[in-house]
Amino acid sequence: MDETDLSRGADITEESHAEPGSEEASLRQRLQKIVSQNRSLRETALRLRQQNKYLEERHGELIDLVNHDPYTGLPIRRLFDRRLDERFQELSLQSEPRFMVLGVIRLDRNYSRIKNSRDRNKILIFKTTSRIKDVIGENLFQSDRLDEFHILLDHIPNMAAVELIADKITEGVARPHEAPADDISFGCYLGIAVYPVHGKTRDELLGNADIALNRCETLDTPYVIYTDEMGRQHREREMIEADLRLAADTGFEQFSIVYQPFVDREGRIIGSEALLRWKHPTLGDIPPQVFIPIAEQTGDIRVIGQWVLYNSCRQLSQWHKKGYVDLYVSVNLSPYQFKQRDLVGRVAGVLSGLGLKGRYLKLEFTESMLMENRDEVVRKMFELKAIGVRLSIDDFGTGYSSLNYLRKLPIDTVKIDKSFVDDVTKSEPNQQIIRAIISLVHAIHLECLAEGAENGEQVSLLLAEGCDAIQGYYFSKPVEPSQFLSYLENGGRFDLTLQSDDSDELCAIPQLASDSVAADT
């Protein structure tokens, strides 16, 4: 019986005048009840269809929210991984290899600087992703970081096309933004790996793109395409990083300290710079310029630096006990060490434990250190000065040279950078720079020390200009403590009148002198 029949039955029952309690009246009541139930069911079914439609719409929105970043609207990392796996499966079935470009984009330091003050609502980052999509369409994905993205491109004909796309992306990101943010511009770093040239598996390609991105940031260049040599250097760096930490954790047996003398205007050894050396068990001697930056990035420089500080002062204490009581030692201080809250306490503890007065320790720091957390740096400098420690600016002239901070800070020594000394005898501008630095330093009653002197002509010019002390291969390369002690035992003086037939050769033979550097003060 359909709805029409039920309606007709209801009409019949309404028209009939059956006696109450009769069979016909009972049938009429049942029909009315069925019609009412049917109407209720139809209303319920309509309501359920409406609710189902609403839930389907909300489900779609939830799926979209779950799979897309709320700020950029880009598909999230999970969808990128899924898309990449699908592409690898498709490419594995191809008879001829085809290029596929995988890239990692990270906004540069200029965005990091303004993101919390000028882009709280992430409008600029949204517009930036739109600029990238103008170049590569919907092939852009959100990384786990808000300021980092992945690109995945198919059907790229050659490497020249890869470079063209990279140029368009980085140039597009770097364009100034529209008003009211027209005073803002920032760039990006783009690391690229190409299948199958730079990897044939998902992890290999992703890893190599990350290596290219890291190189990009290191070189501060817009984009870098991965190379095998880049990968080799990265793996070597990772090995050095791991072995460096192991060497520090297992007693510092692979490390040693060498000492290069400071020579005054009369040729006397007045002190030395302590320089760290690392002899790797399989790679041999690893240059400080290779492992020191790694130690700074990993934070291991704090432990290594403390070891150098203590052992340099201990060695100086041993020379003092032999009678060479005028000597001081100069130790380089990393910016990362300077950030230690207990730095001054650590230095004071070393001096106290070895029975050394502060004036026998000189700490060297770079000009650039003054530009980071200046108030904290200045406060610690005065605290170090209060315990007698002397302070020296290293590599002066290559950074943020300023008469203002030379005048206000408790500095004792200014070190002229080697780059000015190298060709000082052939470069009139360098001679003028050195002359100006020495004059400036003396005007505010500081010591001027030049590093990197390698021949007699350089030494003669520096002395003629009034330089107070000189350090360099002309006198001695950095040497083991035993060799340095032999210099002291042979009089502790270099004969400044001694000239080599070839001015580029070392003149590192201390000459006996009547007044020893070991004389009491």
Keywords:
5-stranded mixed beta sheet, 521 residues, 50% helix, 8-stranded mixed barrel, alpha/beta
Task: Give the helix/strand layout.
Elements: H1 3-15, H2 23-67, H3 77-92, E1 99-107, H4 109-118, H5 123-136, E2 140-142, E3 148-156, H6 159-174, E4 188-195, H7 202-219, E5 223-225, H8 228-249, E6 255-264, E7 269-280, E8 284-286, H9 288-298, H10 301-321, E9 328-332, H11 335-338, H12 343-354, E10 361-366, H13 374-386, E11 390-396, H14 403-408, E12 413-416, H15 418-421, H16 428-443, E13 447-451, H17 456-464, E14 469-471, H18 481-489
Parallel strand pairs: 4-5, 7-9, 9-10, 10-11, 11-12, 12-13, 13-14
Antiparallel strand pairs: 1-3, 1-4, 2-3, 6-7, 6-14, 7-8
Mean pLDDT value? 87
Distance between the termini: 124 Å
Residue stretches low in confidence (pLDDT < 50, at least 5 long) are 12-16, 499-521
Class based on secondary structure composition and strand pairing: alpha/beta
- Rg, alpha carbons: 38 Å
Number of strands: 14
Q: What is the helix content? A: 40-55%
Give the overall form: elongated
- Let me know the largest β-sheet: 8 strands, mixed, barrel
Give the amount of beta strand, in percent: 15-25%
Number of separate helices:
18
